[in-house]
Prior knowledge:
The protein has 76 residues and is of the alpha+beta class.
Amino acid sequence: MSCSEPGKLTGPVKTDNGVVVFNVVNVDNNGRPYSFDESATLFQRTRGAAALGNQIAAILLGKRKVENNILKFFRD
């Protein structure tokens, strides 16, 4: 709610579990400047191809258990 003025009530805002009204006490405008390269790297690391590569085994496996079939596979 950084677009609201200090001392103002902002809302109501619908959430998953209810409705929220914010009391804006202070607005901090001292953030860092936007950097596309930094944001793109962060996106790739958390939600992009790099994240998929790190989690692909768990995604493909899902809730299934792996059975060790190595003896059955190499026997006869």
